[in-house]
Amino acid sequence: MLAAYSLIRPHVTLTPLLDRVNIKTQAGTKLSIKAESLQETGSFKFRGALHACMLVAKEGARHVLAYSSGNHAQGIARAAKMLGMEATIIMPHDAPTIKMDRVRRDGADIFTYLRGQESREELGERLQQEKEAFLIKPYDDARVIAGQGSLGLELLQQLNEPHDVIVCCGGGGLSSGIALAFDGGPHRLFVAEPAGFDDWGRSLDKGQRLSNDRATGSICDAILTPTPGEITFDILKSRLAGHFAADDRQVMMAMKSAWEEAKITAEPGGAVALAAALFHYQGDR
Questions:
Q1: pLDDT given at position 246
Q2: Residues 92, 17 share a domain
Q3: Annotated catalytic residue 81
Q4: What is the rounded CA–CA span in Å between residue 13 and residue 180?
Q5: Is-catalytic flag, 34?
Q6: Rounded CA gap, 1 and 156, in Å?
Q7: 100, 118, 135: which is the final residue of a domain?
Q8: d(C-alpha 196, C-alpha 122), whole Å
Q9: Residue 237 pLDDT > 80, yes or no?
Q10: In this model, does residue 146 exceed pLDDT 80?
Q11: DSSP letter string over the chain?
Q12: Pair (159, 266) in one structural domain
């Protein structure tokens, strides 16, 4: 992970930890916010995407392929552009237009599929063969996880005392990277996901990977994954202190608080961790 951060460090933003914002939990615990929305492409996904693209470029790759609802797509498109590679992105038909536009602006080609009806994995396998491209999965990829873990390494430098850290979780790439960075340290890690799409919470409670019953129905589209990743579940099942699920109303209230108190514009999937902290977390650190 240190090697991954060393490789991508010249190209990523060391995002600030905002610890003077006037946001507290219902129990009165003061919150700090890692402002990763200030990262290149507006998301932590750029970290893992860049690291993976840099490694496959060293292997001779000239074309990369990815599937994503938007943020991993933007990260791959930007990384490929920086490295002079071609990129093909598979996105759901209902992905936000602004994210599709940004992917195209960075020169990537987009193929769409019907979310909940078609398999992006099957389409990915076909396109991978047709285009002779390197597939970079959004979270179940060790290269991506190592890149996302750079955020955890930054937190280790920015947190002066033991903290409970809540991370928004879809497939688990970011959470896994942070968990590995935190290994053996004083911080405790929790994951947060949308209510009704709590595949992580149910999977962790049962000790096996479970799936969501539906693919749509929450404003948190960026983290509506069908089931925890295989690699990420193996990493997180013994490293988490707990899990939370926040409903859409709570997420919208968290987005409002982030803007009013910290002037942070957060998308729903990114605000679910703040919502969990505001409405569900009962700790004091």
A1: 98
A2: no
A3: no
A4: 21
A5: no
A6: 13
A7: 135
A8: 26
A9: yes
A10: yes
A11: -HHHHHHHGGGS----EE-S---B-TT--B--EE-GGGSGGGSTHHHHHHHHHHHHHHTT--EEEEE-SSHHHHHHHHHHHHHT-EEEEEEETTS-HHHHHHHHHTT-EEEEE-TTTS-HHHHHHHHHHHHT-EE--SSS-HHHHHHHHHHHHHHHHH--S--EEEEE-SSSHHHHHHHHHHTTSS-EEEEEEETT--HHHHHHHHTS----S-S--SS-GGG--SS--HHHHHHHTTT-SEEEEE-HHHHHHHHHHHHHHH-----HHHHHHHHHHHHT-----
A12: yes
Range of the domain at 164: 2-43+142-279
Query: Catalytic pick from 43, 69, 175, 257?
Result: 69
pLDDT tens-place string over residues 113-128: 998 788 888 888 899 9
Tokens coding 85: 């590679």
Predicted local confidence at residue 270, as pLDDT: 95
Catalytic residue among 32, 34, 43, 45: 45
Percent residues over pLDDT 70 in the chain: 100
